[in-house]
Amino acid sequence: MAAITEEQVERVRALVAAVPPGSVATYGDIADAAGLSSARIVGWIMRTDASDLPWHRVITASGRPASHLATRQLELLRAEGVLASDGRVPLREYRHSF
After folding, report:
1. Global pTM value
2. At CA 35, angle to CA 54 and CA 26, rounded to 5?
C-alpha cells in the first residue's frame, strides 16, 4: 500500500465524523469522497485512528458490518434507529450521501 498522508487521514476522519446518527456510509463512499483509490485505505485508517469517531456508521458495500464487530456495530446502529435485516443494513434506506 502506498504511503498514507496525514491529510488523507484527516479527510477520512472528517468524513466519518460527518455521517449523522441514523445513517451509514460504506468504506467505498468514504474513499470516493476523500479522493482515495481504495476502500481498503479507509479500512486501514479506521483500524488505526478511529476510536473517537462514530466508526459503527461505516459498513461494507454489501450493507454488512465487519464480521468481528458485527454484534456491537449492529447494536449501536439499532440504538440510532438503523435497522438491519438478516445482519444487513438496507443501504437505499440509510445511506448517507456526501
Report:
1. 0.93
2. 40
